[in-house]
Amino acid sequence: MQHVIIGTAGHIDHGKTTLIKALTGRDTDTLREEKERGISINLGFTYFDLPSGRRAGIIDVPGHEKFIKNMLAGIGGIDLVLLVIAADEGVMPQTKEHLNILQLLDIKNGIIVINKIDMVDEEWLKMVKDDIRSQMKGTFLEKAPMVCVSSITKEGIDELTKTIDEMTKNINERDEEADFRIPVDRVFSVSGFGTVITGTLISGKIHEGDNCEIYVSGIKTKIRGIQVHENPVKEAFAGQRVAVNLANVKKNEVKRGDTVAKVDSMKETMMVDCRMRYLKDAPRELKNHDRIKFYHETSEILGRVVLLDKKVLKPGDTGLVQIRLEGPLAAKRGDKYVIRSYSPMTTIGGGTILEPNPMKEKVFDDNAIQSLLIKEKGDVGDIVEKVIESKSSSYPDIDCIKKETGKSDEEIKKSIESLINKNSVYKFDYGEGTAYIHNKYREQLKEKIQKLLEEFHNENPLKFGIPKEELKSKIFSSNMKQKLFDCILNSFDDLIKVNGNFVSLKTFEVVYSKRQQEIKDEMLNSINDAKFQPPKPEDIFKSYGREEKTAKIVFASLVDNEEIVKISEDIYITSRNLNEAKGILIELFKHSSEITAAQYRDTIGASRKYAVAVLEYFDSIKLTKRIEDKRVLLKSQN
Q: Under CATH, which number does the domain 268-371 receive?
């Protein structure tokens, strides 16, 4: 079912609130101050039923220039605007400012409502209508229906209702499959229920009991209850005005300008990259680092504009900008925004957010500009590719890409599949999840790995390769998941080989010089002949005198190759002898369920020091387990 939100716009005292009362029978001015002063200050909300049977929500915005921020908080989520112009005054300053805002927010559907026709004669009304048509040229309301009404006598109200009904039949339905998002425009407490927020559900759908998050505070909560047009419901859909009761949230923990959305579906940012349209009636040029007020959905944040592709923006210009904010924001790509000058406060521009979570950009950076132009073009595949390219170093998954692009799972998966087929993107299924990187980043990784290994092999010609953890910390991240790291290494099998805990270039082989080979053989024979009481490494090294350095290098290569195994700090045994020691131990367990260190010492014919060291090594590899002064063979080894 199509859900419709209608908003009002127009100059103060042109009868917006009275018009809404004539349409719905309800007064949207609820504050005592509003009734005493006869003007709207805050947003007003109500609804009415159209002749077709559909129910439309209505947002009534204040017209006074002092309350533009309230108008901006309500107008962004509407489907159709009623631009209300009093017949006795015609187009006024706030009419123009509201019209500018509507255009900046890309509102596409509207009706021009000429109100107070009971106060003018036909000749005057015709002149006003002609003037309005003239001033609407070049705007989205240039060919909009124009309906003349009197909110007091009710003349024209039925015609307006029918026109609204007819126009809203053709409004595009919102995306109910996207992640849900509700920009908060009101917060209050209800006795017995707790904190309630209201807003327009601009995308997705919500259900009673859904988990949600308050952005940008990061508070996670649950939807306890939902109302649509004052009626309790179990679910609500994009395009509806909703009141949501949040569980275990205090009133002071949420405010207008926050967003209630799906958990982990958005990211806090202090910068946004945008396309800006600078209004032709802006009072002066916009310069780099000018301070502005930034309006997005229901939020208002101070910031500064950094021009990316121009030195200045002249009135009527468009440009790419980065807005650096003085407070946190949660936004999505494609969102609209408005800026007002810091002083005096007047609407000067706005446009579309192209990148909601950018890096700090430099002026006239070609790469940044080209990236934004691709994102602006709006092709999903190009946007997904750019996001993966920019985020490759963090190995993004689908959720991360979704958060960055604001696109649906289906769109992203389809784009990624196409990019993989073109070898633009690589996919890593590593058991605990799936990660993606761009081919450009993969080539960079490949170059880094190759360079690192070449340097390592040159400095360590007798080492089988660099330890995996060392390579991981130098090129990747020490906290990267091990399975993902292994998966990435395996993808470079055309360049590298992995031998146990070591990584080397595929073409690398350990080649001993004649003298190194002689030392290797001598060492192996010496350690092997000593059986289970091998000489200390330092004694072996000293025996080579001036060749001690070479001896150490050869010894290290034997350890890397696992021809000799480190048992303790100063005990190294050949792998052949160690396997023999293991066999002796297992044979002992065939005759007894437990053995002592003394039994093992006597059997292998070594001193207690060496026997205990070997047993402790077997404990460390989970072959045996020590219980008091005895060992038992672990069942997995039986």
A: 2.40.30.10
- Burial of 280 from C-beta contacts in 10 A (0-12 / 13-18 / 19+): exposed
Say what the pLDDT of residue 63 is.
46
| Angle, CA 216 vertex, CA 211 and CA 221 arms, to 5° | 20
Burial profile 183-204: b = 16 or more Cβ within 10 angstroms, e = fewer: bbbbbeeeeeebbbbbbbbbbb
Domain 4-168, classified CATH 3.40.50.300, yes or no: yes
Q: How many helices, marked H, and strands, marked E, lie in the chain?
A: 19, 34
What's the token pair of residue 236? Answer: 């609500």
pLDDT at 168 over 60: yes
Quote the pLDDT of residue 62.
Answer: 60
pLDDT tens by residue, 563-583: 999 999 899 999 999 999 999
HEC assignment per residue over 181-226: EEECCEEEEECCCEEEEEEECCECEEECCCEEEEECCCEEEEEEEE
Same fold, 4-168 and 181-261: no
Q: What is the CATH number of domain 514-637?
A: 1.10.10.10
Overall fold of domain 181-261: Elongation Factor Tu (Ef-tu); domain 3 (2.40.30)
Backbone angles phi, psi at 380, to 5 degrees: -60, -45
Residue 38 class from Cβ within 10 Å (0-12 exposed, 13-18 middle, 19+ buried)?
A: exposed
Domain range list for the chain: 4-168, 181-261, 268-371, 379-511, 514-637
Q: State phi, psi for 460 to the nearest 5 degrees.
A: -135, 65
Where does 379-511 sit in CATH, by number?
1.10.10.10
**Cα distance between residue 338 and residue 104, in whole Å:** 7
